[in-house]
Amino acid sequence: MPLRLNPTFRAALAASDRPLAGMWVSSGSAVAAEIAAGSGLDWLLLDMEHSAASLETVLTLLQVAQAYPITPLVRVPWNDPTVIKQVLDLGAQNPIVPMVSSAAEARAAVAATRYPPEGVRGVGSALARSARWSRVDDYLSTAADHVSLTVQIETAAGVAAAAEIATVEGVDAIFVGPSDLSASMGLLGQQSHPDVVAAVHAVFAAAQEAGTPVGVNAFDPVVAEAYLAAGADFVAVGADVALLARASEALAHRFSAPHGGERPRS
């Protein structure tokens, strides 16, 4: 019996009457991914850029997320057609490509997700989970319908080119990364600096003018709320490793004695 793939991130954004909230899975842990997938959030970002996650890891995380009503996105480490091809063949429907700073780079990312003649994606669906080993009818002719591409704007050059990037056919969403953006602006670690926030807003304006959904990374709830008020269509509001780090620190602060002090007695 033919199989149907899940709706894409593009479809989820189009169908929603509110901004979509998501979080990162940077640990590579299948247990963490399953906990996050069942959280009630809208989308999950499985990261390969700033983690030790391998292709095998991503396959496992995709399989885990499949059981839950959440949309998984996979961030590849670079705008590399070989890696994008491999991730798509694993069954990732929603790749995120980092560090896209020009329309040409955006077009290259689109080409990596499309079969010829529109793109350069290698044809191996009969061997891959993407088409469920040829159990998805007409996958080759409809593959573009099953893939939603998000590109990240994370540099000052990307901000300057945002209007062009947002109009590239095949770019379904733009995701702004304030951390790298602040670094490229000479403001390393100052994601909430007024100039960085203004640059994020400039990308929002360019994307909104083009009718392209736009999101942003914002782990601080106050910052996230401000970006939502500014029109963000989707926001990443946390990460598994950050949540564990902060929660374990809070436990230590509450229950561990200060250095040199005595532990409280019951």
Automatic annotation (TrEMBL):
This protein's record includes keyword Iron-sulfur: no
Gene3D superfamilies per the UniProt record, alphabetical: Phosphoenolpyruvate-binding domains (3.20.20.60)
Organism superkingdom: Bacteria
Metal-binding found in the keyword field: yes
GO CC annotations, alphabetized: cytoplasm
Sequence ranges assigned to domain HpcH/HpaI aldolase/citrate lyase in this UniProt record: 21-246
Keywords of the record: Lyase, Metal-binding
Gene Ontology molecular function, alphabetical: aldehyde-lyase activity; metal ion binding
Family per record: Belongs to the HpcH/HpaI aldolase family.
Name of the protein in its database record: Alpha-dehydro-beta-deoxy-D-glucarate aldolase
Organism: Microbacterium testaceum (Aureobacterium testaceum)
